[in-house]
Amino acid sequence: MVDFESNYEIDRVANFIHSRNFTRVALQFPDELLKDSTRAVSALREKLRSLRRSCSEVNGDVKDIGLYVMADTTYGSCCVDEVGASHINAECVIHYGHTCLSPTTKLPALCVFGKSSITASNCAKSLCNYASTIHKPILVLFGLEYAHALQDIKEASVVESANLCGTTSRLEFNFADVLCSVINPTVNSKTSDGNEGLVSSSTAVEGCEKAGGTRYEIGGLTWNIPDDCKIDDYALFWIGSDGPAFANVVLTFNGCEIVRYDATEDRLLTDFSQQKRILKRRYYLVEKAKDAAIVGILVGTLGVAGYLSMIHQMKELITRAGKKAYTLVMGKPNPAKLANFPECDVFIYVSCAQTALLDSKEFLAPVITPFEAMLAFNRGSQWTGEYVMAFQDLIAPCPTEVKNPSKEARFSFLHGGYVEDFDVQENGQEEDKESPLPLANVMEKVLQVRDKDPRSLIKSTPNSGAEFLASRSYQGLDINDYSPSPEPFFIGRTGRASGYNDEKSEK
Length: 507
Description:
Radius of gyration: 29 Å
Number of helices: 16
Strand order of the largest sheet: 2-1-3-4-8
Strand content: 15-25%
Low-confidence stretches: 189-210, 423-433, 448-460
Structural class: alpha/beta
Largest sheet: 5 strands, mixed
Helix content: 25-40%
């Protein structure tokens, strides 16, 4: 059992704060770890005091360090909450618990993954038994909470492999490494072609930098495979729980055979048909998004580096597709919040890779990722099976050229007919402000023409919030009398709704 100070790495956190001379530090805890926050702060403060005493004997008096606990983050708890930290003018953030290790924009951060209990010998036994049944190389990935036991698992797997195969031949495994635990703010830099790009200043793993081959990164893990191999040639062995990090791996490497070792129950799970069926639903949402006329862009993060670039890129993509875009900032989305925007046919959720996938079955409109939006709104795009969760991998290095969009009607699989996007024609040329027909054009777009013939042309729904409001039967309170003279007061009912006074008198 891991002791408290070792689990929360009190010594390492204190040395990090003391060595960088931080005086205002934000401590970010997820909901499940808030119960330990006061104890962790007390232990950390005591350690910092001892470090200050030793330092004050040499350099004199040292300023006190303010520690501030943050909870109930605006967005996902796996991301560093720079917005909350800015409210207290924090100089850095100490992030506890599960993290996606997304790059920050302004503040440095130290991530404390925690140390979940695991029996290395049992895990190594399951790993070797699985490897002996297949004829593929094994790539071992893990949740960051098990990073502390990685070396023990490696040593135990060597022993277990020797017991199974003997000393002449042993099973070969490729273990991933932790990318980093210290996140420094991402800076904008000029690439070799003169375009601006995002460069992370986080310290990379030395082994992966020196090793040759193709480098992969996902969820804070990194590894290399030889140049003559593909990732689909490997079988993935995941150590950890069935959480967002594992779902990210399953969708990103959907062409690989994947198994999961559950350390809490000490068993190997091999059936992930449910996760694979998620891909079929995501493809359905892509087809549904193609028929959308009004698109809402949900801002799912204000701290992950590059989110503004992705929002601007999504706006340009939507505009070129002949659709109307609205940007919405509302914290964590839920069905009640998004129901306030019934005019939006689809929402694009710009957030970190581990929170981007929302199950929108209960939502009035589907919620898709930026990658799915690129498939839906780029004419001629086809899904090859590749799936990208991190929006940083989709940011264009330079602004895309605005080409004249196709004016041809497209076929809708959901409607079973051809659909004409009206704004495609309008965005390709400037509007004539002196034209006497703008109102007629708006009314024509509000109309929806259908026919029993499946080959008929279907005209799109309203293409802006104003048109949607005009097509509604109820548009809110309407004051038709514009008389400047005051109106007399009317005495309304009194009493309770269950029985007003005038109703009681009638009885």
